[in-house]
Amino acid sequence: MAEQVDFRNLKPTPELVSEAKKHPNGWVYVITGSYGPKDAVPPEAIAGAWKVDSSGNIVPGSFQPNPKHTPKEGNK
User: Fold this and answer.
1) Fewer CB atoms < 10 Å away: N or C end of the chain?
2) Sign of the C-alpha dihedral, residues 49, 11, 32, 54?
3) pTM
4) CA-CA distance, 68 to 49, in Å (whole number)?
């Protein structure tokens, strides 16, 4: 069985902060499992997302968990 992770207090990684710079006024997503850049990610693999402001910065406290997230071993 996959371990449950509490994403409510999750802090963005340096990689997510960098990714946010590419998506002003958008969102950056936390995806569980192993997916390549061209793979379709199923909605249940998205743990949640942070809002990104117009300057490409993650908005503090904006993490929105995905209530349909179902972590699975291997996910793929």
Assistant:
1) N
2) positive
3) 0.78
4) 13
DSSP state of 14: H
Q: Which domain does 12 fall in, by range?
A: 1-76
How far apart (Å, rounded) are the C-alpha atoms in residues 27 and 53? 9
Which residue do the tokens 């994403």 mark?
7
Number of domains into which the chain is organized: 1
- One digit per residue, the tens of pLDDT, for the chain of length 76 reads 445 566 667 789 999 999 999 999 999 999 998 898 899 999 999 999 999 999 999 999 999 999 999 877 544 4
Tokens at residue 54, please? 């117009």
